[in-house]
């Protein structure tokens, strides 16, 4: 009996444990079912909220296009995004687009965002531009050197020289612009007269006389002048136009052999032919007793000049006369009345304020040597 009761108690406990386990399983099943129901409701609510928010976002957000151009890096990227930002600056920031102070935008950063806005960012770079005496640091977005100059406000001329420290601004950061200009200039110049010599048998050798002073000519020369940064760099003559022809200066050059100057004014008595028609072999038409004086070739003795009245440089063999007594240009032979001195053959080419009537002034280039006044006979030669 005792054994039976022990078995009965054991079976009873097992049944009770089984019943508790079943009740716990049912409880857990109900809890899981309830959790699944709550999750289903939650997921449904989330889906409803997500759909609703998405619909609201899609209705409120604005679609914009952002283009980034970097010529220096050789990139050009465009993307279309939706944004709830109020202005350009915050929209770019929210989409990871940074703006530097050297960059250029096609719209102000404070501009309000509108639907379908196109925002273009051009990446910039600082470069140094040297033009003439000016050196400026500017910001450009163009990689091509000439395009960068134009962007910076420099308009290169057709002949201007552009150089940089790189083929493009991707490699360099300095541009030098040399302004080249051309202009046509007309310059008036003199055409120097030339000297022309002609022989004159009536002048002594070594003497000259100006027949015609001549005249310088005038010509116009057209030049093509090149300027670099305002300074003349080159000049090229392209044409000439004669305005006034030059006229040669003509000088007569003496070819007559001069009578040698005697070593002394005192010579042997000249030989006069018996018939009175010749003197020392020279035929004469008449003879005149005159008073002789002497003068030098010094300018102070000749009114500041050094030539005779006929334009011949003063030298031995030229005498001054009164043209009313002996015509200018006459050949004469001068000797003393007693034959104690002889001047010889001379040319009557000069005059003087004190030479009036039967007076004659004999030229001694180096000085009269105290000649004083002397009586003489003048033979007018044929």
What does this structure look like?
- By secondary structure, the chain is α+β, with helices and mostly antiparallel strands.
- It has four domains: 62-122, Roll (Ubiquitin-like (UB roll)); 125-178, Ubiquitin-like (UB roll); 182-254, Resuscitation-promoting factor rpfb (Resuscitation-promoting factor rpfb fold), CATH 2.20.230.10; 259-381, RlpA-like domain (Barwin-like endoglucanases, Beta Barrel), CATH 2.40.40.
- Helices cover 19% and strands 41% of the residues.
- The strands form five sheets. A six-stranded mixed barrel has the order 16-20-17-19-18-21. A four-stranded mixed sheet has the order 2-1-4-3. Strands 6-5-8-7 form a four-stranded mixed sheet, covered by helices on one side.
- The longest helix has 59 residues, at 2-60.
- The chain is rod-shaped and about 210 Å long.
- The chain starts with a helix and ends with a strand.
- Residues 259-268 have low confidence and may be disordered.
Which term fits the overall shape? rod-shaped
The stretches of 5 or more residues where confidence is low (pLDDT under 50) are 259-268
Helicity level: 10-25%
Strand content: 35-45%
The largest pleated sheet is described as: 6 strands, mixed, barrel
Kindly report how far apart the N and C termini lie: 212 Å
Total beta strands: 21
Rg from alpha-carbon coordinates = 63 Å
Query: What's the level 1 CATH class of the largest domain?
Result: Mainly Beta
The sequence of SSEs as H and E is HEEHEEEEHEEEEEEEEEEEEEEE
Query: Within the largest sheet, what's the order of strands?
Result: 16-20-17-19-18-21
Q: Which structural category do the helix and sheet elements fall into?
A: alpha+beta
Average predicted local confidence, pLDDT: 85
- Second rung of CATH, namely the architecture of the largest domain: Beta Barrel
- So, the CATH homologous superfamily of the largest domain? RlpA-like domain
Count of helical regions = 3
Total number of distinct structural domains = 4
Which fold name corresponds to the CATH topology of the largest domain?
Answer: Barwin-like endoglucanases
